[in-house]
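Batch manifest, entry 17 of 40.
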Amino acid sequence: LGYTLDYLWLREPDMNVARFQQILDHRRIHGLVLAPLDDPREDYELDWSRFVAVAIGLSLGRPRLPRVLHDNYRAMLAVLAELEALGVRRVGLCLAAESDERTLGMWTGAYLATGRRRPGWCAPPLIAPGFNARDFSAWRRAERVEAVISVHPVLPLLQAVLRKTRVKLVSLNLNGADETTPGIYQEPRILGAAAVERVVDLLHRGGRSAAVERADELLHLGRWRPGA
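Output type: structure tokens
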């Protein structure tokens, strides 16, 4: 595409928004691809008028930017369809509250919509700001689920608790190295490439003004991996 790609991390020691702005200006960077943020409530007071920017995911609340994002609603529907095909009789959803917030409730929305269509199949979800093995185990026993749908970062805790049970654990955001857990691989390389292409296209179409006028969203649905 004729551009170089620099990687900048806002969490580096001594990094702040002012320092970040200086680096961008010094390197004459005009296009930004913004990776998902740790805290969707955090504001980044850059001088956005200097840049064409495209966000990956939904975690950046302001400003209004074009986005490339994984289709989390359809991903949940795909997972539920796979579990239904496997004959699972009761499913549960377990998420950190932060994960639910970062996706604007799309996972839970699809899950609850399915529960309304199939009363009794979807257990009440467990969504909490913090997790511990005791609370999860109590919820699992009370709801008698045969499969639990979850995401990182709580997935390792659930794997440890469920290791000696017959409960199936399914991930909505598999990483590339996990070949054993079934779930959805979001294909981050495709999302990143689409964001870069969108930035380049907007630069060619007129820069910052084009980004404001075309603050659209491109959805990508990952693929199901059955696990080992």
